[in-house]
Amino acid sequence: MEEALTDSTYLILLALLKPQHGYAIMKEITVLTEGNFEIGPASMYTILKKLVKNEWIQLEESSDRKKIYQITPKGIVILKKDIQRRKIFYQAGEHMLAKFGEEQEEGKA
């Protein structure tokens, strides 16, 4: 199995399904997570460099000298695989809570 994406990398790839510059990526992540997750500029730009190197995103200079990032087809494949991985974890958690969580609650009553 491929290495799992960190939450920060996952959210950056999600945000880059539409082309954006750095500050907009940070704002988009805050919106996507309803304020439950924020990423700072130092972490974000470190991850962006790694994603460009891996060819999961591409960098384009816009006319106003802003750096615009966009996910590549390779990045979309990686993102889809990680979404599937996260679904499996979510479903496992839901299943286990439904099965054993009620027993734990009943034991407290």
What does this protein structure show overall?
- The structure is a single chain.
- With 109 residues, this protein is mainly alpha-helical.
- It is built from four helices and three strands, in the order αβααββα.
- The chain has helices at residues 7-15, 22-32, 41-53, 73-108, and strands spanning 20-21, 57-61, 67-71.
- The longest helix has 36 residues, at 73-108.
- It starts with 6 loop residues before the first helix and ends with a helix.
- The mean pLDDT is 91.
Quickly list its features:
109 residues; mainly alpha; 3-stranded antiparallel sheet; 4 helices
Question: Can I get a quick summary?
Answer:
63% of the residues lie in helices and 11% in strands. It has helices at 7-15, 22-32, 41-53, 73-108; strands at residues 20-21, 57-61, 67-71.
